[in-house]
């Protein structure tokens, strides 16, 4: 599905929390043979650690907490991908899985004190980041991932960390 992305030295996968960034990054890792770096490995919000991993090369980094800084990735060999998922689904997935402090923290990164963070992130991507990154900006539709063999079909009791 994503084998053609091997040409890029690094791939950063981001988007709103609960949009499918982890499974997208793991599928891309599987298809490209690159090394997977989880958001925990960049301390969720540490751009300097992200840059360090990108300097190591041959990585796929999952980092929704750094979505607001994607346009600052200057390495021309790094592809930046946003996962697009319907906002209603993200909100439903957030319910009881994402605390109010984390939501507030994400809003403040974009200069907001309230609002729907997934909508704010997608708007910023469309108006600023996609334009700045130009040819290095791509999008993945969350539901297209369902076609991949690594997709977990039984999601009734699905946990955030339940991926390959």
Strand and helix map with partners:
Blueprint: E1 10-14, H1 21-32, E2 35-37, H2 47-56, E3 59-62, E4 78-84, H3 87-94, H4 100-109, H5 117-133, E5 137-141
Parallel strand pairs: 1-3, 1-4, 2-3, 4-5
Structural summary, described in words:
By secondary structure, the chain is of the alpha/beta class. The protein has a single domain (3-147), classed as Rossmann fold (3-Layer(aba) Sandwich), CATH 3.40.50.300. Helix content is 35%, strand content 15%. It is built from 5 helices and 5 strands; from the N terminus they run E-H-E-H-E-E-H-H-H-E. The chain has helices at 21-32, 47-56, 87-94, 100-109, 117-133; strands spanning 10-14, 35-37, 59-62, 78-84, 137-141. It has a 5-stranded parallel β-sheet with strand order 2-3-1-4-5, with helices on both faces. It starts with 9 loop residues before the first strand and ends in a 23-residue tail after the last strand. The model has no long low-confidence stretch (mean pLDDT 92).
């Amino acid at each position: 599905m994503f084998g053609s992305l091997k040409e890029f030295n690094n791939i950063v996968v981001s988007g709103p929390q609960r949009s499918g960034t982890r499974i997208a990054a793991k599928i891309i890792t599987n298809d490209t043979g690159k090394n997977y770096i989880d958001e925990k490995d960049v301390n969720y919000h540490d751009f300097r650690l992200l840059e360090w991993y990108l300097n190591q090369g041959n990585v796929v980094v999952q980092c929704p907490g750094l979505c607001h800084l994607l346009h600052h990735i200057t390495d021309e060999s790094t592809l930046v991908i946003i996962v697009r998922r319907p906002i209603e689904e993200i909100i439903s997935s957030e319910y009881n899985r994402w605390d109010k402090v984390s939501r507030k923290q994400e809003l403040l990164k974009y200069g907001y004190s309230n609002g729907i963070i997934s909508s704010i992130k997608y708007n910023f991507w469309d108006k600023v980041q996609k334009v700045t990154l130009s040819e290095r900006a791509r999008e993945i539709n969350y539901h297209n991932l369902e076609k991949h063999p690594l997709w977990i079909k039984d999601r009734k009791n699905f946990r955030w960390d339940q991926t390959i």
